[in-house]
Give the backbone structure.
Amino acid sequence: MIRVSVDTAPIDVGIELAGIAESGAGGIASFIGVVRGDDGVTCLELEHYPGMTEAVLCDLAEQAMARWGLVSAVVVHRVGPMDPGERIVLVATAAAHRGAALEACAFLIDRLKTDAPFWKREHRGRAVSWVDARESDGQAAARWAV
Amino acid sequence: MIRVSVDTAPIDVGIELAGIAESGAGGIASFIGVVRGDDGVTCLELEHYPGMTEAVLCDLAEQAMARWGLVSAVVVHRVGPMDPGERIVLVATAAAHRGAALEACAFLIDRLKTDAPFWKREHRGRAVSWVDARESDGQAAARWAV
Amino acid sequence: MRLLYFAWVRETIGVGEEDVQPPEAVRTVADLIDWLRGCSDAHAAALADMTRLRAAVDQKFVALDTQLGAAREVAIFPPVTGG
Amino acid sequence: MRLLYFAWVRETIGVGEEDVQPPEAVRTVADLIDWLRGCSDAHAAALADMTRLRAAVDQKFVALDTQLGAAREVAIFPPVTGG
């Protein structure tokens, strides 16, 4: 089962993870990205490329399903404005054994960072700035090359 | 923040993960172990060594906090009888960046498997058998040696 | 040809999308960016530094030297920062 | 000395805990297991194969050749299978 969602609504972790465990899944790995509130950010805005975003996320989920023999893969990404402490993204993978679930989860979040067309803009009071891409994200994604 | 719990009550993922994101956490990684229902198991029982179990889990959580500079570490393990599809264990880690959270999460579940005094007994209808330890679990735990 | 802009490229140009008909000499994405710079001061400002730009043709990421061919939708934007 | 048994060791012996006073000659965990085998047929059956047993002394995992010293609580059990 693959589920991909890009939405302005808050992410409900309990619901997303409850839906992923199908028969045969012994382990569920997940990663949740949260708006950090410790560097003065008062609001984070996420812009994306409708249509292309969903296609990229589906493609990554399909790659993960095939490479790690997953039972399920879920990618939920929030867009629009959000407050510190709110969830930006949830990636979850279910597999018969934990090694496959954990690796596939790391793959999905690493590759989402470099492959999916999202852009972050930070508000610090009245100051607004677009977030720069990080060199380390490219390196993290590159380790999954086959 | 460290939270360790060993309890017969079902594990509520939404509550456990909602409590982990403190200021400064940019990423939360989690692993959930589930009773597999695809190999004829009708009930799984978990026995443990009260007192020692909690001490081992706290020690592992403290090691993870120090080694990966975590903001939080949560280990919740269920004991007693449970049905296929129910959650056995939840491990969650929160860190400023995702790499630390993902690695620490894998460390905790790998080491829990070899270091925490739990024993599984499977029921398949009337047949009951204790689960044997797996060689692969020892190998997975060994990769975290420092 | 439909053009889409995102993030600060969109902000600087002042619109999120527009339809254009570039001349025959525009063969690659880089050619297109170069040609767009002549459309307005805002375009020139947004597209000044090619190293800060990325592109997608018909919703697939491409290198800037990619031929446009029969492209219907071209998107120009900064490096992505999601997750 | 307090003894605790878990999983099939507990089931086979028939009790989860008992108090014992082993003789002076019992110095290591392995000595203790060897001595316990003489306590009953059930003990002998549960503790027959030392390679299938693990132990903790005062709630710390130890190798079977570990000295008991002033141990107050010794647990004997199969390899763990949690998670």
User: Anything to note?
Assistant: The beta strands of chain B are 2-7, 27-34, 43-48, 72-78, 80-82, 87-95, 118-124, 127-130. Chain B has a mean pLDDT of 94.
